[in-house]
């Protein structure tokens, strides 16, 4: 009877977590970082799956918003400035990442203004808004 149970267990191969949960972020890599990061003594088997799913969701949200920012500027590529503008314009992301610095995004004070929002009295030559334009 023992041999039949072994045969049954050998015929059904186990699936890896990557095959069971089709995520873009590597579950094994997230698991390794959780274990090596000394966040706790033990890590539950579901923790890296959940964390990878959350990271994928956040990355998709930031990419979607920054893609819209790039499209508003008439660009086809997303740059660091578009990511910065996307994070600062979204209420939840700006609350989550208030002190994050993105290299290459420029100063946080210079925000792109849509042409319709600019004053009509400032001609095409003077488009700057702020204390230096007076």
TrEMBL record:
Claim: Zinc is one of the keywords in the record: no
Top-level taxon in the UniProt lineage: Eukaryota
Compartment(s) where it occurs, according to its Swiss-Prot or TrEMBL record: Nucleus
Gene3D superfamilies: Histone, subunit A
Pfam families: Histone (PF00125)
Core Histone H2A/H2B/H3 domain span: 11-88
InterPro entries per UniProt: H2A/H2B/H3 (IPR007125), Histone-fold (IPR009072), Histone_H2A (IPR002119)
GO molecular function: DNA binding; protein heterodimerization activity; structural constituent of chromatin
Keywords, in A-Z order: Chromosome, DNA-binding, Nucleosome core, Nucleus
Chief place of localization: nucleus
Chain spans, region Disordered: 115-134
Gene Ontology, cellular component aspect: nucleosome; nucleus
Similarity comment: Belongs to the histone H2A family.
Subunit structure comment from the entry: The nucleosome is a histone octamer containing two molecules each of H2A, H2B, H3 and H4 assembled in one H3-H4 heterotetramer and two H2A-H2B heterodimers. The octamer wraps approximately 147 bp of DNA.
Name used for this protein in its record: Histone H2A
Top-level taxonomy: Eukaryota, Viridiplantae, Streptophyta, Embryophyta, Tracheophyta
């Amino acid at each position: 009877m023992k041999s039949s149970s072994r045969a049954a267990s050998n015929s059904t191969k186990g699936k890896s977590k990557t095959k069971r949960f089709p995520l873009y972020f590597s579950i094994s890599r997230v698991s390794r970082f959780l274990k090596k990061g000394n966040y706790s003594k033990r890590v539950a088997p579901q923790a890296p799956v959940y964390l990878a799913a959350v990271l994928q969701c956040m990355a998709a949200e930031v990419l979607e918003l920054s893609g819209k920012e790039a499209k508003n500027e008439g660009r086809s590529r997303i740059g660091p400035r578009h990511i910065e503008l996307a994070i600062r314009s979204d209420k939840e992301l700006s609350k989550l990442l208030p002190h994050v610095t993105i290299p290459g995004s420029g100063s946080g004070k210079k925000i792109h203004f849509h042409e319709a929002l600019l004053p009509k009295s400032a001609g095409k030559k003077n488009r700057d808004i702020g204390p230096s334009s007076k």
